[in-house]
Amino acid sequence: xxxxxxxxxxxxxxxxxxxxxxxxxxxxxxxxxxxxxxxxxxxxxxxxxxxxxxxxxxxxxxxxxxxxxxxxxxxxxxxxxxxxxxxxxxxxxxxxxxxxxxxxxxxxxxxxxxxxxxxxxxxxxxxxxxxxxxxxxxxxxxxxxxxxxxxxxxxxxxxxxxxxxxxxxxxxxxxxxxxxxxxxxxxxxxxxxxxxxxxxxxxxxxxxxxxxxxxxxxxxxxxxxxxx
Length: 228
Known about the structure:
The protein is 62% helix and 11% strand. The chain is of the alpha+beta class.
């Protein structure tokens, strides 16, 4: 059984099954000011987009004197990142980062491909997606019974609650990073959550019950999954 992989490493991150880095990482690892890196992205945007669309996002950039400031950064695929780095002077930091980045892209892509080839994974994804829909319907019904409206934020929080039960982190997940066992466990978590939503409308009351369920599920089924 392949293990699930992290959504993010020091050099790259996964977004909808594809591997990216960003200009914050490039600036940090190449020991450059982020402002100069993002200016190059804007200057050579047409050339960089020969290799795909560039997604600009908002984030925080650390200052040398401490603290941080708001900034726009760009998400880059491997080809875009290598082209961008080639525009910088070849210092030792730049050369070292370029080698490390190519290796990390290759490693993570190989891991994603390995997970995708797992037996039963396609069926596990279908089950997980179906249980998500049913869980959201149940959430809406249970809140309506209490006279409460259900917003997009409520749906997202319920997904994060289930994801936390799986990974220990309150975050959104990219299903491409999950192996067949974790996909099946997430499906089971969502089905269990449908029952618990009715018994424990408040998530903090649901948490210990859900954690107990997950621990018991792992103890029962994970050894069999590893043996396959």
